[in-house]
Amino acid sequence: MSKKQFILIIVFSAVVLSGLGISQLRWISNALDLSEEQYDHRVTLALNEVVDILSTSTESYRGCTNTECEHHDPEVSHLEHVINYDFLGITIRNVFSNYDLLEDYQYSLININEENESHQGIFSNKISLKPHENCSSWKTENYQLGVYFPHKQQHLLLEMWFWLALSGTLLVAVGWLLYFVIFRFMQQKKVADIKNDFINNMTHEFKTPISTISLASEVLLKSDPKAAEERVRHYSRIIQDENNRMKTQVEYILKMALLQKTEIKLKLSYKNIHSLINDAIDTLCLDQFEKQITIDYQYNAKDPMAFVDEMHFYNIVTNMISNAAKYSNSSVHITIRTKNTGNGIVISFLDNGIGIRKEYIPHIFDKFYRVPTGNLHNAKGFGLGLYYVKEMVNAHNGTIEVESEPDKGTTFSIFLPSIEKN
Asked: How many helices (H) and strands (E) does the chain have?
């Protein structure tokens, strides 16, 4: 799958997830509006019933026990002066209970002739009291019974909490599954790319010795049996060297594969790090490299002793030197610096190579990973060297850090403890 197709899949998935989220929010909004309409309708029905009771009951006025009562106080001209609030409160509570309106509420009588302001969130019904024809001093005024529910929105949301939680959970689950699928797809693509790179690198590494062996064999087959013994010995040596080279590469690959399948068992011994570095570099035969390599030794550690596995430490040093040589220009300059810190020793390898870009540094210790160089194949290898170094340093209870800048070189700093840790 091409990069463009992969981006289109991600964009399409994001659009689908966004559309699903918007539709869910729209559904929740519509459901909340419908629930609010139903709630308002119940309140309206309840208020109508309360007003009907007030209009027909003899207990609506204070001091009145029958329909023949008459107020003789000429100053009583407003309904709120004679309304029986105890009866009103009991009536509202009983009726609201019948309509399952059990939330906190506040109520009041609103004189429409004096109050023209709108009361947001207040449910009101006009009151018309008819039974007391003789008490007519307030009949020309219009009143409304207003009821306010301060926690109505919270109550509606609480009623829908299950569906809200279910919708949110499903939306999060779909988003997580989409992320997981994309993440796994990216991982698989990365593994496929690494596998292809490894096969290409391995093919490149084996192609040269195979071609050399084939050519040397062909020369030997076509040569005169009476040819000089030295010539036969020369081509035989070439075949043997190239065969050993392929054998070494195969063993190296198998050794890397075993690192994950078997537990690493080190043969630790108390060794002088400076001496081990010198011995390891001597085995490299630097004069045999295609590039000119110079090494500057800056041994600043006053106590160079540490517990290490001699064989694996040799491999660590040779990998670091070989890696620096691969990714440097024609003239390679490497500085090996040591210093004591805490309860151990730090060994730093500084080179003047091509450096590593910042975004590649977190991956350089991954198995089979090689820093992208386009279509060029300037450096040999399988992407296993730094992986091996990282595994071995960890096995020694040490740490490794990298600092690099493109075109200015790279520094690898390895810390090894001077005290053996089980």
From this structure: 9, 10
Give the count of beta carbons closer than 10 Å to the beta carbon of residue 24. 16
Beta-carbon contacts of 407 under 8 Å, excluding residues fewer than 6 positions away, are 354, 355
Supply the Cα-derived Rg of the chain in whole angstroms.
45
The CA angle 235-238-239, to the nearest 5 degrees, is 90
CATH classification number, 186-261, choose in 3.40.50.970, 1.10.287.130, 1.10.1200.10, 1.10.490.10: 1.10.287.130
pLDDT in tens, the chain (422 residues): 666 776 777 788 778 778 877 887 888 788 888 888 888 888 888 888 888 887 777 677 665 544 444 444 445 556 666 677 888 888 988 998 898 888 888 888 777 665 555 556 677 777 765 444 444 444 545 677 888 888 888 887 787 777 778 777 887 887 888 788 778 777 777 777 666 666 666 666 666 677 777 777 776 666 666 666 666 777 677 777 667 667 666 666 656 555 554 566 788 888 999 999 998 888 777 766 677 888 999 999 999 999 898 888 988 998 898 888 888 877 889 999 999 988 889 999 999 888 888 888 888 888 777 776 654 445 555 667 788 889 889 988 999 999 998 888 899 999 998 765 54
Identify whether the C-beta of residue 418 lies closer than 8 Å to the C-beta of residue 271: no
For residue 109, list its beta bridge partners.
145
Q: Global pTM?
A: 0.48
What is the b/e burial string over 368-382, where b = at least 16 CB atoms within 10 angstroms of the residue's CB?
A: bbbbeeeeeeeeebb
DSSP 131: S
Please check whether residue 319 is in contact with residue 369, taking contact to mean a CB–CB distance below 8 angstroms.
no
Token pair recorded at residue 383: 């992407």
CATH topology of domain 268-417: Heat Shock Protein 90 (3.30.565)
Task: Assign 27 to helix, strand or coil.
Answer: helix
Asked if 409 contacts 350 with a C-beta cutoff of 8 angstroms, the reply is yes
Q: Give the start-to-end residue ranges of the domains of the chain.
A: 3-159, 186-261, 268-417
**Cα torsion 371, 377, 383, 385: sign:** negative
DSSP structural state of residue 78: S
Q: What does the DSSP 8-state code read for residue 399?
A: E
Q: Which 8-state DSSP code applies to residue 417?
A: E
Give me the amino acid identity at 113.
N
Type and span of the H or E element at 375: none
